[in-house]
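Issue 218. Parser rejects a valid record. Input:
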Amino acid sequence: MRSRNPVFSRRGFSRDNGYAGFNAAPQAGGPAVGTQANPYAQGNPYAQQAGNPYAQNPYAQQGLQQGAPPQAPVTPGAMTMDDVVARTATTLGTVVLTAVLSWLLLPVDEANLGKSYGIAVGAGLVAMVLALVQSFKRRPSPALILSYAALEGVFLGVISSAVSTYIADGVVAQAVMGTMAVFAGVLVAYKAGWIRVNRRFYGFVMAAALGFVLLMAVNLLFTVFGGGDGLGFRSGALGIVFGVIGIILGACFLALDFKQVEDGITYGAPREEAWLAAFGLTLTLVWIYMEFLRLLAILNSND
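Output the parser choked on:
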């Protein structure tokens, strides 16, 4: 049920016998999903019973009596919330550090603008390639994830500096605060149960995101080969609308991230999978920040 699209395929953990999330129902005549022997499920207190909604999870080797809420596993070496927080802080800290350094060391004045843009675009392209590689890897690679974060920070630093210099001073701080507000708001809504992440939610978000990305790609092609603003999806009134849609999609991806982290901890995902959680959260927060920055740039350029 997971897309192989590198932007979306992180909605789950290990691609072989780890947690995949939103598993399809078992086929008629076939073995029930999640009943295979799982090395991460040893000692897991959950009991698989007919009708148990948690029984389809590959980490739930034994698990839980019907109707009882899931509890955190006691499997040695399992991922914990502390692991996720530490890995996410390291990854995001790398992004912020390299963004600040690139802002300071790659000036965007008229004499250096071309050079700085060239370095930023190159870093952004390499970061995209590293994200693709990690998305198709079976296991998380901390070196790959941190390299992606460092290069993404270079790209964000130069772009943010240019927007602040040539469009409106202060929009970067506003974009950061907006990103933090969305993160906090989605987290509160998710923990309060106002957002229910299920297969229908997952399918809707993936379909909407795929359509959004395709439209933006077509708009970029028209911009490159036709000049001007392309189809106008990133400027004027349409740009504002699509900026808001992009932020909403980012908020939906945060809910998916929270669900995967919660389920991974509940069912005893191995500790190394915390790097995948950090990778997914970083990608989502970068998406939201870029959409905020673009939206604020449009609003300020229309003033």
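Fixed in the parser; the record now loads. Helices lie at 81-105, 113-136, 142-166, 171-191, 199-226, 236-266, 274-301.
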